[in-house]
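Late entry, evening session. Most of the bench is empty. Finally got around to the prediction I had been postponing all week. Sequence below, unchanged from the version circulated by S.P.
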Amino acid sequence: MIEAVPPLPEEAQPALAAYEAMEASKTAHFAYLAEVDARVQGGGQRTLADEARLHTLLAEHDRAVESFKGAILDLLQSAPEAHAAFLRYITTRNAASAH
């Protein structure tokens, strides 16, 4: 049985936005990497433009990770209960989306 996603406290909204930005940047990087790999597997080549785009996407993801780390630490320090609720929210949401 899939558990219902618990409500998210308002204080946790910045952490959620940072988490979603981090997830989006990871998805964008992996999607482009898969596109390039498929092209190479099909006999194409990885270009300098591909390398530059992958570098840019990875740098964007690195920034998103740092932003999330800051947001989650801020939440832990300012509202420990909201931090715990955020972790429950993300864990439950991710488990529900995995099914």
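Two things to note before I forget:
The first helix runs from residue 13 to 41.
The radius of gyration is 17 Å.
Will write this up properly tomorrow.
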